[in-house]
Write a structure and sequence with these properties.
The chain is mainly beta and 467 residues long. The protein has 2 domains: 215 residues, Immunoglobulin-like; 207 residues, Sandwich (Immunoglobulin-like), CATH 2.60.40. It contains 6 helices and 20 strands. Strands 2, 4, 5, 6, 8, 9 and 10 form a 7-stranded mixed sheet that branches. Strands 13, 15, 16, 17, 19 and 20 form a 6-stranded mixed sheet that branches. A hairpin with a 3-residue loop joins β9 and β10. The radius of gyration is 32 Å and the shape is elongated. The protein starts with 12 loop residues before the first strand and ends in a 17-residue tail after the last helix.
Length: 467
Amino acid sequence: MPQATPQSSPALAVELEGDALWYQPGDVVIGRVVRRCSTKCQRAILTVSLHGRAKSKFANSETQRRGVYTLIVGSRNKQQLWNGAVHIPERGDQSWPFTFTLPTHADSRCLPVSIKENEKNSFVPFNNNVPLPASFSGTSTSESKEGFIEYYIQAEIQMHAHGTATAVKPVRIERYNSGPPIEMRMNLLNTLHTVQGDSLVPGYSRDQLTTSQKFKKMFSSVPPPKLAFTLQTWFPITLQMDQSGHVPIKLRVVPKWDKTSEILQDVLQTCRLRKLDIEIRTLVEIRCEGPYDTEWEWCPKVQGSRQFGPRDTPVEVPFGHDSEPLDVGEVLNLRMKTTKDRREIMPFNVQQLHPEFTTYNIRTKNRLKGTVEVKVADKVITAEIDREIKVFPPADNTGGPHSPAVDNIGATSSTWTQPPPPYEEPPNFEALQAVNQHGSEGDRGTEKFESICPSIVPDETGTHGLR
């Protein structure tokens, strides 16, 4: 069940305006199909189509199950760009422009006819209100489990007596959250700790004790002083891709005097951050026919970890009821990778952080896990974070809805977006062949031929492109 891989050659290639890397649902995809091979063909038929699908698979030694859903039907989103003679001289090329408008919802016309029988194989109802999901790829490392959502443009040229050439261009789709950036929500984790030791007493130093004093301490029946306190850890339970600033993790140590030894009452303690390890883990659940459900978890490369050694500048954690919590996320500059980083650095099949989504046969959740270690005097205490969080798509003002993002499009030629002129009948092949045997006349004939614009005709369903 492989994903579509890019196919491009001089025989046929699909190029997108500005080498676009990503689109949003509702965007207009502008591109062209290009052939850079010398060609003399009396008749060629060139088509281009838009496809989208969601696939899931589970396999072991005993069984193999699949789930397949078409999101964008290629046959219903197909354009015929050319039907006629093609002549491309040596070191020349020919291009045919096209446009597609991406839908905002999955095409419900591709769903099984027997809804009552097949709807149990889906996480969502079979209706017209299933949003077009973003591109996704996830694979389990321990078992044969995988799920992916992909979109691609496919071009095909059939040439009389010259065979067929095909080109495939994968297209990444990202979803954006409507409205302004979300307001981040924080959760407070209180962990109660008790530590004991003479080092909690101000001015105490074991190195200053005599040998006799050390022996007395060793055999003394008096327990060492005790400090009880709560380590307060604030962490986000809502995050948004491309959010500005750092990921906040706040810490504070609050003493519990009623459970603390008298000698330590109202004594300020030195508390320092020893270790912070934060990661966001993604849980993927797939559904195959049967229905059959399975899941797996991975940790995308969106995490922050810092271990503090003797030579590092100490990070002091506030101690006291009235002290202001310290944002160690700001101190350590903890950040999530942005959507732009993911588009430009990560290939299509690399497992990444994704906002939660649910579609027919795939759904995901995210969980924040972490370990915080704080050293109080010479005692180390630990708090564990483990909480499901909500990761939202970027705000729609990050890239602009329904148009390619500004950072996604380079300098483009105005010829990309010019509307095609009216369709003209192609020149007679024999006449064109005769003209091209005479120097400059042949060049002028080629220029005329290249100015001919493709026509868009209905497909077998009677629709023009997307509905």
